[in-house]
Amino acid sequence: MENRKRCSKRPWIGLVTGLTFIFLSSAAAQQIEPEVPFVPTPEKVVAEMLKMAQVGKDDVLYDLGCGDGRIVITAAKEFGCRGVGIDIDPQRIRESRKNAIKAGVADKVQFIQMDLFEAEISEATVVTLYLLSEVNLRLRPKLLRELNPGTRVVSHEFSMGEWEPDASSSVKTGDAKDPQVLDYWDPNIADYWDLHNVYFWIIPGNVMGTWKLEIPDVSGKKEYTLKFEQVFQQVRGEAFEGSSSIPVFIMDDKIKGNTLQFILERKLKGRTERLHFEGSMQGNTMQGTMKIEGSPGTNKIQWTARRVLSTLRSIIASRNWGLFTLN
User: Fold this and answer.
1) Taking the alpha carbons of 308, 312, 316, 322 in that order, is the dihedral positive or negative?
2) For a designed S-S bond to 210, which of 126, 155, 197, 308 qualifies (C-beta 3.0 to 4.6 A apart)?
3) What sign does the CA torsion over 165, 118, 134, 315 have?
4) How far apart are CA 322 and CA 180, in angstroms?
5) Model confidence, pTM
6) What domains appear along the chain, each with residue ranges and CATH number?
7) Bridging pattern class, strands 126-129 and 152-156
8) pLDDT in tens, the chain (327 residues)
9) Based on C-alpha coordinates, what's the Rg of the chain?
10) Do residues 178 and 152 make contact, with C-beta atoms less than 8 angstroms apart?
11) Alpha-carbon torsion 183, 189, 190, 195, what sign?
């Protein structure tokens, strides 16, 4: 009888063991290993990153791969902004939440455990990174696609390949006895606390395509056709006046977020006239003011331009410029 009881229990034991194994295997499959090892950013570098991004109280800062949360927490504590940290490692998220409570900013920050490539980041006005070069390159299309023009991006140590930074700096931390460094990094690698690179970008608006520009004139309106190409934040273009094929040269094209500046140069009765334009872009419309170089008057003329929708395309992510084949 006793032997029979033992036999009757074995199938249940096997079932429980099997279910446990399946559960653990499923959990292990769902636990994705971090691609980037956790190494904290020294406090001096954090300060430089936030300074370069000009973080203010109205900003929403996202730290992708937030580690122990120090960048988000420092931004909230020092500047009063709202912050979101994202990390795939649950241990780092637990640590970040504890650090936020300790710093007294738990009401201003949020830490989310998830893959940063799947995160919704469109509300960010500042994005901070301490990843690896290859991860930055994979992340680059997401940043350009999802972030609003004018959003500031700052990376500790690693660049973005062909996307040149708008600014960069180096920070000497200089203190090899910093316990925050020694706890997490090999003390034999002296340059870790000696010199750090910081890179800064501003998400550019997309000016790619053909635009129809109108300028008020004493005889009605002057019309120009503008054709712009763009590689990240670098822009170049060409222009034609009215319906003619006579070129008007576009010079000094610059875009910073949604703000655009350029000069139209045209030949007029044996002399060269330069029209200086500045304005802002909203979707498929640009508008701003224009001033004629050398004009004795100080009045600026209002202008408007609209994109031909069929010519809209993504910003080029290569140095191989096209040949202005836009229609």
Assistant:
1) negative
2) 308
3) negative
4) 49
5) 0.81
6) 43-202 (3.40.50.150), 209-311 (2.40.128.120)
7) parallel
8) 333 333 333 343 333 333 333 333 333 334 566 677 788 899 999 999 999 999 999 999 999 999 999 999 999 999 999 999 999 999 999 999 999 999 999 999 999 999 999 999 999 999 999 999 999 999 999 999 999 999 999 999 999 999 999 999 999 986 554 545 444 444 444 455 578 999 999 999 999 999 999 988 756 688 999 999 999 999 999 999 887 667 789 988 899 999 999 999 988 777 888 999 999 999 999 999 999 887 766 678 999 999 999 999 988 766 665 544 443
9) 28
10) no
11) negative
Sequence-separated contacts (24+) of 188-192 with Cβ below 8 Å: none
d(CA 19, CA 12): 10
In whole angstroms, what is the distance from residue 87 CA to residue 69 CA?
Answer: 9
Is the four-CA dihedral 195, 203, 234, 65 of positive or negative sign? positive
CA–CA separation, 36 vs 112, rounded Å? Answer: 17
| CA-wise closest residue to 199 among 140, 154, 136 | 154
CA end-to-end span of the chain, whole Å? 91
Report helix, strand or coil for 40.
coil
Cβ atoms of 188 and 216 closer than 8 Å:
no
Measure the CA–CA gap between 55 and 152, rounded to whole angstroms: 9
- Alpha carbon of 259 to those of 103, 132, 143, 256, 312: distances in Å? 37, 30, 19, 5, 18
Pairing between strand 285-292 and 60-64? unpaired
In DSSP notation, 37-106 reads: ---PPPHHHHHHHHHHTT--TT-EEEEET-TTSHHHHHHHHHH--EEEEEES-HHHHHHHHHHHHHHT-T
Q: Which residue has the tokens 């979101």?
A: 84
Instruction: Fill in the amino acid letter for 192.
Output: Y
Residue among 293, 257, 294, 263 nearest 277 (CA): 263
